[in-house]
Amino acid sequence: MEKQVTLRSIAYIGILAYHALTNASQWESAYNGIDYTAMYNFIIDSFPSGSDRLRELLAWWTRQVFGAVSQGNVAGVTTAQRSLQLLNGQ
After folding, report:
1. Is there a domain that residue 69 lies in?
2. What string of pLDDT tens digits covers the 90 residues of the chain?
3. Whole-prediction pTM
4. Which residue, of 11, 47, 50, 54, has the greatest Cβ tally within 10 A?
């Protein structure tokens, strides 16, 4: 199974991050005039399906979360190993 970040996971994490930055004492569907469902849908709707922008965003986040292996790197080089290789090459 290929590990990939999805747009829905990005939207969900965005909502969680927003909520964490508030001073709300408990989870509710809206806070301080911000409806979390509407915010989630706004994030999803901001990236048209199949657009280059969406593909680039998902590819970038997939590399950040899962590293180079998830991008079809059969050699099994981890992100940390690849970073070290790049630093040594400078």
Report:
1. yes
2. 578 999 999 999 999 999 999 999 999 999 999 999 999 999 999 999 989 999 999 999 999 998 865 444 444 556 667 677 778 877
3. 0.69
4. 11
